[in-house]
Amino acid sequence: MKSVQAMTAKELEYCADSMSNEDLLIKQCAVAAATITNAQVKQACSHMIDVHTQHYNTLLSALQQHQSIAPAQPQA
Q1: In a domain, 70, yes or no
Q2: What is the pLDDT of residues 7-43, one digit of tens each?
Q3: Is residue 38 part of a domain?
């Protein structure tokens, strides 16, 4: 069985950027859902909020798992 390794600084930065992007998409979909009058489009926006929230939570979980295995000191 393969052991899990801590993420590199570049991978951590990618996760943080992706979380930021997902958060922005959640907010944009929420604005659209609140202002659109077409019920089908409003429903699609609400669905996309759920999808992007799930993505955000998946990334957050990956960061939390990393925290538990990350070295306490920077590696030389």
Answers
A1: no
A2: 888 988 999 999 999 999 999 999 999 999 999 999 9
A3: yes
Closest residue by Cα to residue 12 from 52, 76, 71, 24: 71
Residue 1 is assigned to a structural domain of this protein: no
Q: 54-66 pLDDT, tens per residue?
A: 999 999 998 888 8
Cα-atom radius of gyration of the chain, to the nearest Å? 17
At 39, which amino acid appears?
Answer: A
Strands (DSSP E) along 4-76, which ranges?
none
Give the pLDDT of residue 76.
Answer: 52
The amino acid that residue 35 corresponds to is T
What per-residue string of b and e applies to 34-64 under the rule 16 or more CB within 10 Å gives b?
eeeeeeeeeeebeebbeebeebbeebeebee
Residue 42 domain-assigned (yes or no)? yes
Domains in the chain: how many in total? 1
Please tell me the pTM assigned to this model: 0.81
